[in-house]
Amino acid sequence: MSDRNELGRQMAEKLYAAERALDTALAEVGDLSALMTRGRMDHGIAAVVGQEALEHVATCGGTLTKARRALIEGHKQMARDAKAMRIVWSVLGGPELKPTDDGPRVEPVGRLRQVA
């Protein structure tokens, strides 16, 4: 395996970790927003209480969504660059479906494997 392929594999691993971390953060912020709203209603707290905090949390969710889009676009560009440079960064297995440029892909992607 060339040094460039190893670099590609390492970059793909970090990219995957960053994507998972952003998804986790986005899900946690969504859960927090829901808890803030449901908790207020369940405990009979006036809507004005916590409104400013909820707005800040919602802004955070929007910011994370934009960051996720930027990371996805970076992923696409990294894949194009790797292909152009004939760098192998192959993935194997996992729970996620990766779309093609034209639509959904049926093959799952996940953890990386070394390619000889």
Helix content: 55-70%
Global structural class? mainly alpha
The average pLDDT score comes to 85
Along the chain, the helix and strand elements come as: HHEE
- Give the radius of gyration: 19 Å
**Sheet of most strands:** 2 strands, antiparallel
Instruction: Give the amount of beta strand, in percent.
Output: under 5%
State the end-to-end distance: 6 Å
Low-confidence stretches are none
Strand order of the largest sheet: 1-2
Give the helix tally.
Answer: 2
Strand element count = 2
Shape: rod-shaped
Structure description:
- The model has no long low-confidence stretch (mean pLDDT 85).
- The chain has two helices and two strands, in the order H-H-E-E.
- It is mainly alpha-helical and 116 residues long.
- Helices cover 64% and strands 3% of the residues.
- The longest helix is centred in the first third of the chain and has 40 residues, at 3-42.
- A two-stranded antiparallel ribbon has the order 1-2.
Which helices and strands, and how do they pair?
Layout: H1 3-42, H2 51-84, E1 96-97, E2 108-109
Antiparallel strand pairs: 1-2
Quick take:
The protein has 116 residues and is mainly alpha-helical.
